[in-house]
Structure formats: C-alpha cells, structure tokens
Amino acid sequence: MSRVDHMDVAAYALGVLDEQDMERFEEHLATCWACAAELETMVPVVGLLSDIDEESITALEQTHSDPVLLDRTLVALRTHRRRARFRQVLATAAAVVVFGGLTGVVFSNLTDSSTAPPFAGPTTAPVGPPTDRTGNPSGPSLGGNEQEGEQVDVTDPATGVEATFWLTSKDFGTKMDFSLGKLPGPRTCRLVVVRDDGSTEVVSTWLVPDGGYGTNANTQLLTLSAATSTKRDNIKQFEVQEIDSRGATDTLVTVPAA
C-alpha cells in the first residue's frame, strides 16, 4: 500500500473520493490501524464543517475585501460551532443518562422477577414439602418440621378422605394448616369455614391431579395453608368439598373447630 493511500483519510472523511477510490481506501482501512485512528480523530472536525452552509461560504468570500466583515464572520462561525458542539455534548450526556436509567430499571425488574416467589393465591400456599407418609400424621409435625397450632385428625367414614388440621388463633382471625390424603383425582376442591351462626366462607380452592394425593398412584399428601378473619371461637367446623362442573358441591370430609 502506497503512502498516497495513507493520505486519503481526509479526502475519505470529507466524502470527496470517487466510488472506486472509496472502495480501495475502505479495503485499506480494514487492515490499517493508523488510518483508522486518524479517521476517528477527524469525525468531530467533519461534523463541525458540515454545519457551515452555503451562505457562510459566500460571506467568507466577501471578507477578502472587508477585514472587519472577516472578523465578524469568524466570530459568528466560532459561536455557531461552540453551540453545535455544546448541543452534541448535551445529547450524548442525555443518551447516557437515559440508557443508564433504563438499564437500572431493567436490571431491577430482572432481579425482582428472579427472586420473587410464585404467586399462589391470596389465602392458600404450600406449608412445606410434600410428605411420602400415607394416612394421618400421629405427631405435631409435618414433613419433619414442628407444626404450629392445635392438631385435629379426621377420617371421613363415607369417602375415606383423611384430613389433619393445625388450628391457630391469630390477631387477624384463624390460621389453618392442613394435609389431605386418600384423596383421588381428578377433581376440584375447596375449603369452607362454617361459622356458629350458619354462615359460610370459602377460604381456598385447588385442583387434584389424576393421581390424587395419598393414594396408591401418588403417596404424597397434599399440604396447604389458609386463613380467615373469623375468630376460632366463632367457627363451628371446616368442610373440604368437591365441586363438579355444574358448580354443585359434595362434602368429602368435615373437621370440627374444637
């Protein structure tokens, strides 16, 4: 590559090369770091020169016969260039700020979405890992962890569904942790609180898969947690009900509150 090729940087930056010379220089530029670095330094100069319009050139030509006009024109050009450069700096800074803000928001959203637990409904959530034990637990623990609340064990003689409830009085009302076994599927179930005055409240619903829970097909018990604003002293019983496709219900097991 000749020295002339290295001197084509300015002509290329100003866009005065013909198409053939431009292609030849671009091939040279791909392998010459010196020309690439020089071209990078000329980008701001080319940007400033692009701000000079035809009227400015005409005014410069007139300054050959009027030195005072020359001074005024140079001052005007310098002011215009400073403003153009200042606008460019402001635009770059604004872009950095916006990009940084967006990056922070995206990073925050990604962090939140990766650490937040899945939403399990307002009143129902798993209270621990499923246990492989079938039948009603005999102790105050579930899955090896100490369970809060008074334990109530019930097996429905008609359906065979087994239920273990742990009932805890809270300032907000009553908390119920419970496990169910011998519960075949598929079916849709719900937990209903029956108050002393005969009124009822549905506090949770769930789906039972084909294998069921605590069955030969799936030995794991279903473990859930729910809560109600009703005080325990005002609760008569809890009912685990099945809901059919028409909305009709059938009680699978009844658990007394006391």
Automatic annotation (TrEMBL):
Q: What start-end ranges are recorded for coiled-coil regions in this protein?
A: none
Q: Which UniProt keywords apply?
A: Membrane, Transcription, Transcription regulation, Transmembrane, Transmembrane helix
- Top-rank taxon, per record: Bacteria
Q: Where is this region: Disordered?
A: 115-151
Ranges for the Putative zinc-finger domain? 10-35
Q: Which residues cross the membrane?
A: 89-110
- Where composition is biased (Low complexity), the residues are 115-126
Any one Pfam family match given in the protein's UniProt record, by short name? zf-HC2
* Protein name (database record): Membrane protein
Q: Does the keyword Transcription regulation apply?
A: yes
| Keyword Metal-binding among record annotations | no
